[in-house]
Every structure is written in structure tokens, then in C-alpha cells.
Amino acid sequence: MTLRLALVAMLAVTLLVIQPARISVAGASDRTTFQGCVESRTDTSITLNTSGGEHVSIDTTWLKREDLDDALTDCVTVIAMTVDGRYIAESIEAGDEQAK
After folding, report:
1. Three-class secondary structure of residue 17 per DSSP
2. Which of 8, 25, 27, 76 is the most buried (most CB within 10 A)?
3. Which CATH number describes the domain made up of 28-94?
4. What's the whole-number mean pLDDT along residues 82-94?
5. Per-domain residue ranges for the chain?
């Protein structure tokens, strides 16, 4: 019985040590604001032609569908965080006066 408990304890410790390495964390410093016009859209992302002349793909799965639909009538401002090297939209607002 003692050997079995020792093995279970070792397994639990191993999983606790390995698990944090696989968790993606985004902090406040990982946020980026993009302004531009939507070049293309799928069910899960948009591609912006930014006011800086870049083409940026942003994952929109975290946004409410109605917020996304309301904002995408014109150029937009998107606040996104970086998770695993991808931009994930946190918020989107209609309007980007600089992207004409």
C-alpha cells in the first residue's frame, strides 16, 4: 500500500510540474490596439488592413456575435491580446478615423 501511495504522489507532483508549462498566459502588456478596415472575415477571425498598411489576422471567437456584427459596418478599432503568438480580440468598436 505504501508503494502505491508513493507512486500516486510522484505522478501528482510530475503533473503539477508539467502543467504550468503548457498553460498560456496573457498579461496587460500583451495588449495591442489595431485600427483599420476589415479586408476579410470568417466565422472565427477578421483580417484588418491597418492604418499602418499592415494586414493583421485577429481571432474573434471571444467576442459576442452581435458586438462583432454591429462593429463591422465600417472601419474598426480592435484591442487584442497575444496568446500563443496569435492576436485574440478582446473588444471591437466601429470607427477608425485614420484608416481612410
Report:
1. helix
2. 76
3. 2.40.50.140
4. 90
5. 28-94
